[in-house]
Amino acid sequence: xxxxxxxxxxxxxxxxxxxxxxxxxxxxxxxxxxxxxxxxxxxxxxxxxxxxxxxxxxxxxxxxxxxxxxxxxxxxxxxxxxxxxxxxxxxxxxxxxxxxxxxxxxxxxxxxxxxxxxxxxxxxxxxxxxxxxxxxxxxxxxxxxxxxxxxxxxxxxxxxxxxxxxxxxxxxxxxxxxxxxxxxxxxxxxxxxxxxxxxxxxxxxxxxxxxxxxxxxxxxxxxxxxxxxxxxxxxxxxxxxxxxxxxxxxxxxxxxxxxxxxxxxxxxxxxxxxxxxxxxxxxxxxxxxxxxxxxxxxxxxxxxxxxxxxxxxxxxxxxxxxxxxxxxxxxxxxxxxxxxxxxxxxxxxxx
Length: 351
Prior knowledge:
The chain is α/β, with parallel strands linked by helices. The chain folds into two domains: 182 residues, Rossmann fold (3-Layer(aba) Sandwich), CATH 3.40.50; 156 residues, 3-Layer(aba) Sandwich (Rossmann fold). The strands form three sheets. The protein has a seven-stranded mixed β-sheet. The protein has a five-stranded parallel β-sheet with strand order 2-3-4-1-5.
């Protein structure tokens, strides 16, 4: 599948990316897998092993996966983001709740005839999700379907909480048995080179959110009033929601018992978000911290235009916390404009 290698390399060059040795090796592994998937007679006795591609934020994992997926001339392929996959899976399981095989039936519906499944941004911190993903991976590996997934962590780094990690070890061993682990942990953090001007990059992290800043950006003032939305059959109180704009407080969206599936529903109606009162994240409750990280993932992946208002600049507000994924969150938010007032002088920092 040399054309796939050449095509991905050409796309990287067109974006100004200089691929390093590990990324080049990853492309070759993807091309090798493509050949096995497209020509299964090369492996008559068994299906090809999948690929587990991991590395820190900004190393081009999603770029490589998307380029590979787009250029593979295979009709029987599917690509999901981690959050999207589980949102659809949960919905289908709920719809099939009367069946004893609800999860298996849901996967049959989602993956019928699929020969290649691509699974982007796989990460795991919740023991409930971990138990479900164990069943899901077991079911996927039992199919004639090759799996390619990207992650910020090696398999051993999944579900890092020591209270739960040992319970997930059998699934880690299952992943290692059915997938080749490929590291692209070195090289350049492409996100640090600047955004590409899409909707997410047009947003801003604003502090302290004074009247002048709000006027310049066309942002409304904070209001004590609330309107109620129905999201996944549950109430959610927000400041305002109309004409594709959601105005919400950190306490409304992160301290309330919301979930990733709620954010995925909201972004379909509201592509522009204004989030007030971002605190120093390390001072928030562990649950609120995790919700904030999940929310940023969804807003980033769906390319929403986002304005976050805080009394603190980004590097102080999104500081260290006990959740390892804070590094990914900080990297993603750094692609927004950063605007803050210091000593009565307006200062604007680029991406």
